[in-house]
């Protein structure tokens, strides 16, 4: 097995040993950790800008951008912030009512930001951060709330505590809900693709109709445990990559049949992140990163020496760079 070569490694000032989120686009490598935001040069890993987000506390940071990449969006501790993507200066900040200091998930269209936190969903104006609509999702409890939007922009998908909900993006009214066959409670991931919502929960994967929320397909990934599920879709749209509980899996996107499932060496049955590459997928967990081809072969890997056995988050830029966030560090791996 070949190694994924380390191009650079950067310790992030002020980040401590916290969970480290990564977003990569044509403007650079954005990293968020422990209430800090950084912009890194993708070639060298040099920090070119930073923002300590003063007043928002040392909490988990989540990142998003609109399609134009004209703004860097930050979700942290019950707040959404819009930052200049070059200088990282704060353009606007909005506290989300009733969120407390909970984690905030984000997604954006060309003019709108959708945020989920603590059992609430919010619609904000992209340019100003003005709050335009709120849905408290009555009856679903105060739990982590994840969001995705359909390619048609007709449905906002929400994953919360073992449930999937479809909202009207214009006013956040509920269009449908699906209790996922009474699967129970826990973190529920959602991703949109090809007129469907893919929902991951307790090691299971569901494919739902975009318009009505009806169950189209289900795969329980038998024998892979009941951990958190994370998703990526390959560039052709044919495959759904699934990371869960120390396993990397590839499913057919149209029926959820398994193409491969791999137990990741050294994984320790922990949270497993995944991003799409060029006819490969990159999976990461417990301080390891793996490149797996469409035959299910682990082609390359990295143990990220010296950075410990912690949660790993990934961002990828075409065929050139895999950015790895771990324990207050960012590592650039060559592809």
TrEMBL record:
This is Quino protein alcohol dehydrogenase-like protein. It comes from Glonium stellatum. InterPro entries: Quinoprotein_ADH-like_sf (IPR011047), WD40/YVTN_repeat-like_dom_sf (IPR015943).
